[in-house]
Amino acid sequence: MPQDFTPYQQKIIKRYYGNQDTILRQRLAELVGELYLAEGKKKAKAWEAAAQAMLKLGLSQARVDHLVKQANPALIAQVVKELEGKP
User: Fold this and answer.
1) How far apart are alpha carbons 2 and 48 in whole angstroms?
2) Could you report the per-residue pLDDT of 8-27, keeping only the tens digit for each?
3) DSSP letters for 24-53
4) Coil, helix or strand for 54?
5) Residue 35 in contact with residue 73, Cβ under 8 Å?
6) Measuring CA to CA, how many Å separate 23 from each of 2, 14, 18, 27, 53?
7) Chain mean pLDDT for the chain
8) Number of domains within the chain
9) For residues 34 and 45, is the Cβ–Cβ distance under 8 A?
10) Which listed residue, of 11, 21, 25, 50, carries a Cα 20 to 30 Å from 80's Cα?
11) Banded pLDDT at 30 (limits 50, 70, 90)
12) What angle in degrees, to the nearest 10, is found between the helix axes of 20-37 and 7-18?
């Protein structure tokens, strides 16, 4: 199924996928705040989204499982700092 995109649309798509790691890091940082504030089902969904983001960013499944099991948003904040290259 060929898709005909204009050159402008092609540039937007290319930039999106070229910056996807930055977008995912930013989303993970936003999820840290949500994890602190959310309760109940929203908190469970936020943890699931954080786990997916971390996997897409290249963290190992074992590490992601450990972080989710700990259920500590501060640990996710540390991962965000690590991914951004900050000590």
Assistant:
1) 33
2) 999 999 999 999 999 999 99
3) HHHHHHHHHHHHHH--THHHHHHHHHHHHH
4) helix
5) yes
6) 27, 14, 10, 6, 10
7) 92
8) 1
9) no
10) 11
11) very high
12) 60
47 closest CA partner among 63, 35, 64: 35
Provide CB contacts within 8 A for 54, sequence distance 6+: 28, 63, 64, 67, 76, 79
CA distances from 78 to 43, 83, 87 (A): 19, 9, 9
User: Domain of 79?
Assistant: 7-84
CA gap 26, 20 in Å, rounded: 10
Supply the pLDDT for residue 86: 72
Task: Tell me if 28 is assigned to some domain.
Answer: yes
Does 19 map to a domain? yes
